Amino acid sequence: ETHFTKKKRFVGKQVLITAGPTYEKIDPVRFIGNHSSGKMGLALAHAMANEGAHVELIAGPGNYQITSSAITLTSVSSADEMYQAVSDAYDQTDIAIFAAAVADYKPAAPAEEKIKKTGESMTIELIKNKDIAAEMGKRKLAHQINVGFALETEKEELYAQEKLAKKNFDLIVLNSLNDNGAGFSVDTNKITIFSVDQKPKYFELKSKQEVANDILNCVHEKILS
Ligand code: CTP
Ligand code: CA
Known about the structure:
By secondary structure, the chain is α/β, with parallel strands linked by helices.
């Protein structure tokens, strides 16, 4: 039997990864959520763990099959809970990857009791959630690397570059919607990676595991630069 050992590039690194959706409570039985599967974050967590990193995976509701003892899962539900967990862990982090699909808004005043069906229409007032990645971007020190994600339906390169700057990311991964099989609930992604100081890197449609490896290559380049 031949055994190949891959070079481990992230030995001793503390990595924080957000993944999955967030659920924003409307009343005791209802929430606002989204279709994020958390698969990209989970693939990144395993890729990092396989290369020697210690990974803190902070994930919204979903099924996460973790097969590495180097991954610690912190399960959260709302954006507020995710913010708190990330904030607690961030200062010990060398590499933070924000792969979660965080709800932008939450109900202003979740109801204590189940909301009864009454009128012909109803309105729920929403207020903005904290931007987890942007807040950690403000706290980022020179040795830390922050990686963001973006999914756009128009002006994708422009908007991705704007987010890179605005949130103080070192890298941003643009998920392309222009190919069948990219995005939520599938096992493949087509990405472009933007960096503050380099030309964009374009990648083919690949499995999320292979995409995770491409992202790790770019993170490793950043560490070396
Ligand atoms: N993000 C976050 N906290 C939020 C919103 C977004 O950490 N409250 C992170 C995401 O995990 C992602 C990046 O910010 O890494 C970009 O998310 P995106 O939804 O594309 O950006 P927004 O700033 O929310 O802009 P918009 O949804 O209006 O395009
Ligand atoms: Ca958003």
